[in-house]
C-alpha cells in the first residue's frame, strides 16, 4: 500500500478496491516493524483540508478533549507523549468518516501504544456542571429537560442520551422539569437513592455532607429506589404529586409526608423558607447561599425558626434571628492567604448572656 491510497482513504475518496487493499494491508503487513513505523509517520504528517464549518465544529470538540487531557497532566513522560500525539492526531483527522478503523489499527499495532486506562478515562461525551457555593445554575439537557441547581451542587450527564434510559448523577440539590419520553425513563442518581421518571417535575436533595436524601414531587409520578449492600437496589415505592420523601442514610429509615411542599422548592425562586427548622439546618442553608462558614455554640442548637426570607442580605437575616431567639453573632475578619486570596468569611453564633 502506498501513501497516495492512504491519503485518499483518510479523505474518504478511495474506491472500493482501494479500501479493500487497505484492509488487506492492515491484516497481513501492518504487524511488521516496517509497517508500524511507516503508518505512524503517515499518521503524524496527515493534514486534511477542512471546510470552515467543520473547523469550528471540531475545534470546539478538540478544546474539550484537550481540557480533559490537561486534567491528567504531570503524570510522567509517557502520558505527556499521549497528550501531544493524540491532540495532534485528532486536530488533523477528526473530520474523517472512517477514523474508527484507523484508531483501532494504531492502538493495537503501533510501537507507540497509549496507556489504556488513560485513554478510556477521556469521556468527551460527559458534561459536568457545578453551581459553586454562593451561586445557582440553570441548564437545559439535550432531551429538553430543564434543571435548576442549588448552591454548592453538581450534576454530571451525557451530552446526548444514548440507550434505553436518560441517566444523570446529582450531588447537592436540583429541581428537574423532565421532558416526557415514554421510551426512555429519566433517572437521577445520588449516592444512595435513585429517582426515576418519564416526564414530570420534582426536586432532589442529596448533599454529600448530609445524612438525609430527599425527593419532592410536583407533577406526574416518580419511582424511588434505594441502594443497599452489595450494589443491590431496593424499590421503595411510587410517589404522587405533593409528596415529600426523606431517606436517612445512616439508619435507613424512610419518612414520607404529603401536603404543603413549597418550602422544599422555594430555593429555586431565591427564597429561604424555614418551617420549624432547627438552627443547624438554617445555618447549613445560609452557609451554602452566602459562601460563609458558620460555627454554632452547643447551647444554641435547641432553637428552631419559622420564617421566610426573600433576597435578604446575610446580616439582615442574622439580625432577625437575634430578635427571634436569644442569640448573638460575631463576624471574624477574612485573612489574606499566601497565594493572595482571602479565606472564607467566618461567623460564630452563641447564646446571649
Automatic annotation (TrEMBL):
Chain ranges of the Protein FecR C-terminal domain: 271-331
Coiled coil: none
Residues of the FecR protein domain: 133-222
Domain of life: Bacteria
Keywords: Membrane, Transmembrane, Transmembrane helix
Transmembrane segments: 89-108
InterPro entries the UniProt entry points to: FecR, FecR_C, Ferrdict_sens_TM
GO molecular function: sigma factor antagonist activity
Pfam families recorded: FecR (PF04773), FecR_C (PF16344)
Record-given protein name: DUF4974 domain-containing protein
Amino acid at each position: 500500500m502506498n501513501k497516495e491510497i492512504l491519503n485518499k482513504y483518510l479523505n474518504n475518496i478511495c474506491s472500493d478496491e482501494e479500501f479493500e487493499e487497505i484492509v488487506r494491508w492492515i491484516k497481513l503487513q501492518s504487524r511488521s516493524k516496517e509497517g508500524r513505523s511507516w503508518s505512524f509517520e503517515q499518521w503524524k504528517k496527515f493534514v486534511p483540508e477542512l471546510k470552515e464549518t467543520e473547523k469550528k465544529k471540531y475545534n470546539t470538540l478538540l478544546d474539550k478533549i484537550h481540557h480533559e487531557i490537561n486534567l491528567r497532566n504531570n503524570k510522567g513522560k509517557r502520558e505527556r507523549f499521549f497528550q501531544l500525539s493524540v491532540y495532534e492526531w485528532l486536530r488533523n483527522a477528526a473530520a474523517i468518516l472512517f477514523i474508527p478503523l484507523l484508531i483501532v489499527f494504531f492502538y493495537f499495532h503501533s510501537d507507540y501504544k497509549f496507556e489504556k486506562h488513560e485513554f478510556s478515562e477521556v469521556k468527551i461525551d460527559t458534561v459536568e456542571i457545578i453551581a459553586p457555593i454562593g451561586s445557582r445554575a440553570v441548564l437545559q439537557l439535550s432531551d429538553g429537560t430543564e434543571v435548576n441547581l442549588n448552591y454548592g451542587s453538581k450534576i454530571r450527564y451525557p451530552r446526548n442520551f444514548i440507550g434505553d434510559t436518560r441517566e444523570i448523577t446529582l450531588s447537592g440539590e436540583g429541581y428537574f422539569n423532565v421532558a416526557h419520553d415514554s421510551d426512555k425513563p429519566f433517572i437521577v442518581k445520588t449516592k444512595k437513592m435513585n429517582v426515576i421518571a418519564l416526564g414530570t417535575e420534582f426536586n432532589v436533595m442529596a448533599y454529600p455532607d448530609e445524612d438525609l436524601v430527599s425527593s419532592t414531587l410536583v407533577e406526574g409520578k416518580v419511582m424511588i429506589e434505594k441502594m443497599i449492600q452489595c450494589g443491590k437496589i431496593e424499590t421503595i415505592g411510587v410517589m404522587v404529586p405533593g409528596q415529600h420523601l426523606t431517606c436517612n442514610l445512616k439508619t435507613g429509615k424512610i419518612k414520607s409526608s404529603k401536603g404543603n411542599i413549597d418550602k422544599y422548592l422555594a430555593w429555586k425562586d431565591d427564597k429561604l423558607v424555614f418551617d420549624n427548622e432547627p438552627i443547624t439546618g438554617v445555618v447549613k442553608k445560609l452557609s451554602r447561599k452566602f459562601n460563609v462558614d458558620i460555627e454554632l455554640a452547643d447551647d444554641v442548637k435547641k432553637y428552631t425558626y419559622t420564617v421566610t426570607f426573600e433576597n435578604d442580605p446575610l446580616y439582615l437575616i442574622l439580625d432577625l434571628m437575634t430578635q427571634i431567639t436569644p442569640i448573638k453573632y460575631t463576624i471574624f475578619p477574612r485573612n489574606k492567604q499566601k497565594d493572595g486570596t482571602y479565606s472564607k468569611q467566618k461567623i460564630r453564633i452563641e447564646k446571649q448572656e
